[in-house]
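Batch 3, record 17
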Amino acid sequence: AQKITQTQPGMFVQEKEAVTLDCTYDTSDQSYGLFWYKQPSSGEMIFLIYQGSYDEQNATEGRYSLNFQKARKSANLVISASQLGDSAMYFCAMREGTQGAQKLVFGQGTRLTINP
Amino acid sequence: DAGVTQSPTHLIKTRGQQVTLRCSPKSGHDTVSWYQQALGQGPQFIFQYYEEEERQRGNFPDRFSGHQFPNYSSELNVNALLLGDSALYLCASSLFTGTGVETQYFGPGTRLLVL
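Prediction for the assembled complex:
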């Protein structure tokens, strides 16, 4: 079974600083995918970024980038120039299953607080 | 472009009752997945529907059942509610592409409280 570990329950960062949220994973599959979602206090899970196991380049989406280190089985999310609106829970998730029957396995999440 | 919608937003029930939660997928999506998120935890997969059939199921008892309609919308039913069923229930939709990447987009969730 696949497993996602997020070891930082909470992070506190000053506005405009960069922040790295850690995620390690465990899988025996050769082909897999990793996702990051943001969950504000409203509850909705917002998709941020995706990295496939065979992607040669680290994924980037605006201020979000994914530091993918396959040998270490880590997929850390980097947020550059943090903003007050970035305060939320952040979840790392792994795709489990074959094409057409995929589910997400989530980590425990990291609560990020941006201080002004 | 309408995103995933869920109803109701909040619900209070008592032990032993039954509840039905509803979800409309993002426009163009054909697959609906349901997740349960207990307080302070990550979401746990309940089941997934595609072409009106349950395609896969997580480790949840038979009290949890679902349905998908021809317009791709979906319902989650929970019978004989227990206090431990209190949680945020999230619906996610995706499009089956056959390429291996099916990004799931989530709705705002339904907060269920069982007293």
